[in-house]
Amino acid sequence: MVGAGPGDPELLTVKAARILRQAEVWLVDDLVGPDIHALAAPGARILKVGKRGGCRSTPQDFILRLMARHARQGRVVARVKGGDPFIFGRGGEEMQWLAARGIAAEAVGGITAGLAVGAALGLPLTHRGLSRGVALVTAHTMDDTRPDWRGLAASGLTVVCYMGMRDAGALARELREAGFAADIPVAVAHRVSCPGQRHIVTRLDRMAADIANSGLSSPSVIVIGPAVSLIDAARLGPDMMLAA
């Protein structure tokens, strides 16, 4: 169970790269880029089993059966997931399923986009005096439940929201109703660390309109909190910061 990171092949861990070079079969998510595919050994089979919201996706049961079939045939199988398999990647579910059938599996962590976005944008997710922690949450669940937005609004944490692009207007309304300020800074980053990375910086009451105007879409993460206001300062050298 290999976490391939957010997209930049240089953010892949050494352990993940070693295992991918040894694997005979790859079961690969859509968000794993071609530069990472290039690590496959000659003769390795790369099977694309992508799952994307709003798009035609490979059924989860089929992915599980493929893993089991190839493993039982004695092959080294890499289930390759973008980011980290245990952060909104169903890694826990798949590991449990394999264990219940007596199939040995190992998890290899990766850098999730919600953490990589800090360095990618020069945005400190935690910062003394502005943010004492960070919360990774999803705006889309199987049962349509929501995170405790009210608790998060009062927490003082930077909130990184996955899967919030489907209806950014509804998300913004929920956050406002839960107590997030209209003018709280927001960054929206598309394809974090990839060659096509794009981002906008806005505020909550303008977030939906600015997303629509920019043409940003999934896969993106939405970062909400006062620390977003430092996104420009974090990219300046010390002389420029002093001059400002």
UniProtKB/TrEMBL annotation:
Q: Which InterPro entries match?
A: 4pyrrol_Mease (IPR000878), 4pyrrol_Methylase_sf (IPR035996), 4pyrrole_Mease_sub1 (IPR014777), 4pyrrole_Mease_sub2 (IPR014776), CobA/CysG_C (IPR006366), Siro_Cobalamin_biosynth (IPR050161), Uropor_MeTrfase_CS (IPR003043)
Which keywords fit this entry according to its UniProt record? Methyltransferase, Porphyrin biosynthesis, S-adenosyl-L-methionine, Transferase
Q: Name one Pfam family in it.
A: TP_methylase
The answer to keyword Transferase applying to this record is yes
Record's superkingdom? Bacteria
Q: Which PROSITE patterns match?
A: SUMT_1
The catalytic activity of this protein is classed by the Enzyme Commission as: 2.1.1.107
Tetrapyrrole methylase domain: residues covered: 1-206
Q: Pathway listed for it? A: Porphyrin-containing compound metabolism; siroheme biosynthesis; precorrin-2 from uroporphyrinogen III: step 1/1
Family (UniProt) = Belongs to the precorrin methyltransferase family.
| Name of the protein | uroporphyrinogen-III C-methyltransferase
Organism, scientific name: Bordetella bronchialis
What taxonomic lineage is listed for the species of origin?
Bacteria, Pseudomonadati, Pseudomonadota, Betaproteobacteria, Burkholderiales
